[in-house]
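Human: I would love a firmer grasp of how sequence relates to backbone shape in proteins. Could you go through the record with me and say what the backbone is doing? Here is the record:
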Amino acid sequence: MLGAWRSHSDYQSFLVENIQPIYASDKNRVLQFSEALSKLYNLDLDVLKPVLEPYYSNTGSPAKNQPEVFRSFVLMSLLKCHSITKWVYTLHHDNLLCCMIGVSPDNIPGVGTHYDLINRLWLEDPDIEKDRQDSLHPFKRKPRKKLAKNQKLPPRHPGIIQKFVDLALQGKIFESRPEKLLQQIFADVAVRPSANDGILGDIEKLTISGDGTCIKTGGSPFGIRTCDCANKGIFNCDCHRKFSDPDARYGWDSYHETWFYGYSGYFLVTYNEELKSDIPIYLRLVEAPRYDGVTAIIALSEARALYPDFVFDKFIGDCAHDNYPTYHLLNKWNIKPVIPLNKKNKNNSKYQGTIKINENGIPVCMAGLSMVYNGFMKDRNRIKWRCPFATGKVDSCNCKDKCSSSDYGRTVYTKPSSDPRLFTVIPRGSDEWKCEMKKRTSSERVNKRLLNDYELELSKTRGKKRWSFWIMIHSINIHLDARLKKSKFDFISMLDGLLGRAA
């Protein structure tokens, strides 16, 4: 059962009371942890209790210090400690760190307690998980053929995106996914408090971007042989083997142009222009060869279910998302797509109209000039375009008399329903399109923060369970960074004020 839960206000009082004597005796050392102290002081874990309670038995010995253990993981992430064993050892030799997570030196959670929390948050049958870990799996060699520069692995199953879109439109999502509780915790502990603080902006008109990233596992791709082929002189067999990370696969890293062994992370991110901060709102870990366009459908569907009070206004993705099923889904959900055209799909167009258009879906006038975007007519679901000469975009036009005698100039309309890929609600090449497209890099910067700033891969973690857990913890810290930047709260200044008043 879930034991006594220290409230956030009680933790804050405990922190201030126990930090003061350390601050008085060794001020410089406390100053080293100024940022971490400010973040932990504002990390309210009270919302975690009702989420965790159903996953603890009503009988047996009560689980103690659960908020302290969770806070311990957050501090581990902040201090870039990648080993739980080493971390617990450090806690036993550092009263300041014990105070920061909210425990006394004689009540430090053990290594097993830390691992127990990770296991408890993963909604998979332990017996099934153990069978997968203990069983033998096929040995897959690293592919030799390399893809072209910036080329991504195509979907393994033709038509799979359309199948997922059909399921999404029927309201079907993966309710039995083992990471569901982690996603719920991340939403309640990080995303919703950030939304309440105004970090996400207008949650009824959110712009989100989605992108995948490569995550190399700490497990070996060669596995452990259990056959006797070596005794027979066969040292290069393909027999089934035991793997420390049986869920890991080979994937193609299009940026570094190399094959990697591990997973693909896919995150939905929003950008705060005022703080210049990139804020993740949804996290998902999938197989390394999974195509981003496939994962995007699952991610959007699950994110809408996770945040029913959020309204996603725009979705920004790279060319891996450029396919008709995705545009159809986004239009059904009233989400404006901002997706560049994939050069490989250049001739893949459904438009059969008489208006001449360029490669970006913009009408071309008699003089061969791109017409000028004049707004989206929501009531008639069509985009209005005007003559570039009449709107002052060009100084002269040889076709003026042939085209239209009106001073207003020729006007044409395109309908997204005619070809949702070419005629997007926000026209390609428009100022609004360019402005929104710049925000796409926010998802890439979150990938960079997880991999570089929080040294995700250096943990040498094995298994989807632990990778998903650490991605969640690091992402919570990204939210704490943004909230601290907005509030400008400083724990040390608060402490100095308290000590000054006491004096």
